[in-house]
UniProtKB/TrEMBL annotation, chains A, B, C, D:
GO terms for cellular component: plasma membrane. NCBIfam families: PRK11197.1 (NF008398). Residues 1-377 form the FMN hydroxy acid dehydrogenase domain. This is FMN hydroxy acid dehydrogenase domain-containing protein. InterPro entries: Aldolase_TIM, Alpha-hydoxy_acid_DH_FMN, FMN-dep_DH, FMN_HAD, FMN_hydac_DH_AS. Glyoxylate binds at Y128, R163, H273, R276. The lineage of its organism: Bacteria, Pseudomonadati, Pseudomonadota, Alphaproteobacteria, Hyphomicrobiales. FMN binds at P76, I77, G78, S105, Q126, K249, S271, D304, S305, G306, V307, R308, G327, R328. The keyword Nucleotidyltransferase does not apply. Its cofactor is FMN.
Length: 377, 377, 377, 377
């Protein structure tokens, strides 16, 4: 269905109302960090090597204690239902059949239970903490009952980034749609029909909120109840409560990374939330080497934000990452064609990664082995 | 009325005749310094921190000896009446209710006395020196009688910058409006009506000039009477004459800053006049750290020129400033909606600053505490 | 027929269906390396010298053991027939009469034997290795019988680069032309007529493939049979088998260059395949000096990829190259006007090189003598 | 007639046929050096100073042994008659009344004698050497008889730069005008009328050529007779022959500058011929400091190429120049309005220079005093 990554993005753009595409594509404020994520990847150079090729490359690795057919996992994406009906089930199935880890967001459209029931493969659960510890405990318990192999604790959302595109499009809580916004939605009748037939909600939070079936109501209920900043004490509590692997997502600073590791994180996701939180923050590609140096070789570091291709994945490995999370790169596929679209996105990334490994003479998709394939600018 | 800063600028553009918008937006000559001011802010990186959040951020600080609800003050803006009727009263009221210092320009449309009478809150007065010391003395006395807590002495206007946009638009002294200029003005009838009903003048200078009610006449009278370059002797005279805080505005060089401090300035505004004077001058963001190092930690340094958002304010603090002056950033709001527009502009900056402090783990809006939040390029 | 290089490119663009022009012009993936090749040449500076002019410049040199009227040779170009009927004969004749080496591709439209018969001047043969050693041996033997003075072994195509433009245009194996592609081809009736009258194939491979007269069939036959990665053992075998000069093409790394030299390469072509293979690889201009330093002064190094003018040729000499291969720079001429077009392209490059040598005071077109004419950025 | 420099350029563009404007504006080949000249000036930073102002700036200086009201002289421009009838007389008069040196080109439209007769003020003469020493001697003698205070020997034209715009426009020797070129000329009837009434020739060379009244004939006669490269021996001969000041124009390298000084040049013009000769050469702004360091403080160095404003003039002084030559910057005025246009161009540059000196606290327009006003990038 797609022969290069640009196709999936273009297809997503064709399918989605422009405001929804903007919600996916955009970053916070002036989108400086969003652009840096991409520019800093582009500026890295891969070493072309010709004689030390191995007959075949090994893309398999272990991420968050799980086997992965390539060093990539799907990042947690909230409000998935605006991109495709039953988004998370589509994405999780594609991930499962491709053999890469999937992470369900607190703000997913389908609930933990639905995904567990429909997908039949393990998935990770990402937690945005609530002020009310009872809710946190309940969510952890549900994730535990769903046998999630890892909990991904988001720590970069002390306050939500101001996304100018969403503000322009009236995508606020509460919604402020104006006539021009409505008109643009009507231009995508297929999307609209899907929406009306299968109105998404926030499946995990619906049980705690007054009108659980309505996305707007649940969002408005949840908004003021998020805890925001995560403290060291919070992390300790979760480490204590959660029985399996613990991943801390949203770190961009060496001190923070060292603290997370000290408090028991099994893996750390280096992220600026895809340029959607602190505008003006550095790219993850530029910060990773310093963090790797600070934490040493034993801590599992995953690079997130700005990964668009298998070439970027190899660059991340070369900078010291164990693997990558991808957000938009798979959501383009999801919006373009549900499970099949996500599968196509993963297939492309794997092919590109394999090509890049072949042409750089990289045998194994692990951080130590490929670090020489990259030259920093 | 506005949900992100771009809205205020766009609204100002809609309201104002294009020549007036250009007068606001433009810089001198090729606008190289104007662009540098913005680019150098954009290039700075903010440190994303996640675990050392404080429960609440303290934005309050002290500027020029006055309490400020955030480290921002409104810069002196001449000819305010071209942006909104009774501009200074609107802006000063918005500043007062938001709790930030306001500075009235020598070239304000409303006079010191009018502002004092209508606003009922202290404001600073900015002085452009005249050749005639009697006028200087009179202006100081009027500012004193209005209980201005600080005098802001402008020193960067030895000669007025050549602003190509104004020259193109016929905004010269005397005016040289051509038919095409008139046509463009007629496209903004609401602005024109306001102008005709409430013809602005230069309120502070009207008393000394032949036909005080006419902006063109007063400007033409004043133009050749400005002193231009301010000498060390001038500064000493003012320090001696003026009883309260003295601020020197328009310094971009470490030696000049040291001299100003030595001669008794209570605070120094690092400024290139918003890129409207010496084209080719460095950005203030690039010069501030060197000046801070030269003058030491005790001198109050305020960064001016290029500040457009709360993110820029935090970057300025991180470079060593005690706070910022904002020019265009508030005038967009003023032109868009008078007092309410200025209030909206201030509100946005405060929100952005708070968000930026939250996501960088910055507790206090003071120079020393946040210097680690910035990495120079 | 052409007065500056832009003309040839424009003429090629006018003649060719857009998909064919894209096939020529494009690079792999996001074309980052393609752009780097050009940008890094542009950033180099030539030393303007005025008093040490020699009465005449000597452009003659030796490349791959052959005399060359300037330090330039024509790179191997596959599928030449899509640019001009009997492309290789046109190009080889132009090269012969201009006095520069020509290299025939494994994937040429005309076969080794046809070119040998029609051109009557020596040419080099470029080998893409096949998995089946018998085919390799057969090709070497044919090249030997044609008295090719040098074999150019390509080593940078372990896997073929993914060229997004070709994918967009349906130029895949097998072809996937859609109606819109056909329409664009019909806009170039002259090209179409040539195609239909003189349907190109892959002349060298036709004998081994089922329907040798059909380009699509031969390509599909060949595609899975290429060996891809070339190993040190392969190189040793070829060094052993091939009786005359051996050139290794497609090296961008100092270690690889040292190995190639050690295993008996007579010359090494520093290349990233014109930005058509590993996207993200460095430009050849940026890598050459390091490779020169690593291999010492005695190894013949030829720079390939990104050379568009005689100025670029001089820059390459200044960086330490013995000469350059040009790909697109001559194919523009070929597409624009067959043999005459290639001659025009060579003429322009020679003139530019002579001008550049004159204005930099460079007497001889050899690496050692002109190295001071360049300042790296 | 003009209020900022952009106006003069725009007016020139309106008046001239596009091919003639291109001849003025363009550079050689890809115009890389042309763009560098401008970009490198823009990147320089001027030091804003506020307290050390002097009451008035002294712009007067000495250039080539002549008094100059500002550190600027008019560069030699060939074919002036294509820009304005009797171009050199207009330009020389404007220069004389403004008090800056004027330099007549070998290729001027009006002859040495005409200019001497009509202008009544001293001017310099620029020599392009001929192969035939008799012509050189004759030209020197004519310049001597016209009491030219200085001879400017051009040394950067060993071969003429290939100017793609001229090639595109058919401005070659011989002319190759095609219908589309003619159509564009007819769009500027005023220019055409001037041309027909006052057909320009090359006044200085007409006496030696068959049909002296025809520009095309004289050009075609002269073209193959230029000597091109100037050798040290040539320079010695001229130094010996020419009785007054000798200026060498077209040096961009420290060794060349030292040799020129050693052989008796009274002043050296650092130039890349306005980006019209060696494309890929460095900007003059980037090379000047190194040359100044190499030759010491006593050699008079004049920066040429890329100067567009008084700000650029101050930057040049700050880099170590004694003054500047301006080419295009005055020809815009010439094309826009003859003598009045050149006067306007000079007036603007003087005003800008005065403003820039004022705002940088620069008292004197000499290299030593203002070197601190610039910070290199
Ligand atoms: C539409 C969208 C929704 C997201 N929702 C969440 C979320 O619910 N939880 C979370 O931790 N991160 C969320 N993220 C951030 C992603 O997990 C990931 O960090 C980011 O997309 C990575 O950047 P990339 O899109 O450049 O790959 C979201 C990102 C996008 C684009
Ligand atoms: C329209 C306009 C009028 C100004 N008038 C004055 C003035 O009267 N006195 C003064 O000291 N500065 C004046 N300035 C400069 C501002 O005080 C301030 O230094 C500048 O606007 C800061 O740059 P910014 O606009 O990028 O924030 C003016 C600036 C503008 C844009
Ligand atoms: C259309 C096209 C076909 C090519 N075919 C071959 C080929 O068959 N064998 C090969 O070794 N290189 C091939 N190359 C690469 C060229 O030999 C050469 O390395 C490249 O064109 C150099 O870059 P340049 O085009 O920027 O000069 C091809 C390049 C192009 C543009
Ligand atoms: C139209 C034109 C004609 C020129 N003719 C001559 C000439 O006859 N002799 C010469 O020495 N330089 C000539 N030059 C170069 C100028 O003297 C000068 O070096 C150049 O214009 C400086 O660059 P600028 O235009 O950026 O100021 C010419 C330049 C232009 C633009």
């Amino acid at each position: 269905m797609a022969v290069h990554p640009g196709h999936l993005k273009a297809a997503a753009k064709r399918r989605l109302p422009s405001a929804v595409f903007d919600f996916l594509e955009g970053g916070s404020n002036d989108e400086v960090t969003l652009k840096r994520n991409l520019a800093d990847f582009e500026a890295l150079r891969l070493n072309q090597r010709v004689f030390d090729h191995v007959a075949s490359r090994n893309l398999r690795t272990t991420l968050f204690g799980q086997r992965a057919s390539m060093p990539v996992a799907l990042a947690p994406i909230g409000m998935g239902g605006v991109f495709h009906p039953r988004a998370e089930i589509h994405a999780a199935r594609a991930a499962a059949s491709f053999g890469v880890p999937y992470c369900l967001s607190t703000l997913s459209s389908c609930s933990i239970e639905e995904v567990a029931a429909e997908v039949g493969a393990p998935f990770m659960f990402q937690l945005y903490m609530f002020k009310d510890r009872a809710i946190n405990a309940a969510l952890l318990q549900r994730a535990d009952q769903a046998h999630c192999p890892a909990l991904v604790l988001n720590v970069d959302t002390a306050v939500q980034g101001r996304r100018n595109r969403d503000l322009d499009n009236g995508l606020t809580i509460p919604l402020r749609l104006r006539p021009q916004h409505i008109v643009r939605i009507l231009q995508k009748p297929r999307w609209l029909l899907n929406w009306l037939l299968k109105k998404p909600t926030l499946g995990n939070l619906a049980p705690y909120s007054p009108d659980g079936s309505d996305l707007a109501t649940v969002s408005a209920w949840a908004e003021p109840r998020f805890k925001g900043a995560v403290t060291a004490a919070d992390l300790e509590w979760i480490r204590h409560t959660w029985p399996r692997k613990l991943v801390v997502k949203g770190i961009l600073d060496a001190e923070d990374a060292k603290l997370a590791a000290k408090l028991g994180a099994d893996a750390i996701v280096i992220s600026n939330h895809g340029g959607r939180q602190l505008d003006g923050a550095s790219s993850t590609a530029s910060m990773l080497p310093g963090i790797r140096e600070a934490v040493g070789d034993d801590v599992e570091l995953i690079l997130d934000s700005g990964v668009r291709s298998g070439f970027d994945v190899l660059k991340a490995l070369g900078l010291g990452a164990h693997g990558c999370l991808i957000g938009r790169a798979f959501v383009y596929g999801l919006a373009a064609g549900g499970q099949r679209g996500v599968a196509a996105a993963l297939e492309l990334i794997a092919q590109e990664l394999d090509e890049a490994m072949t042409l750089t003479g990289t045998a194994d998709a692990t951080p130590c082995r490929v670090v020489s394939c990259c030259v920093e600018l």
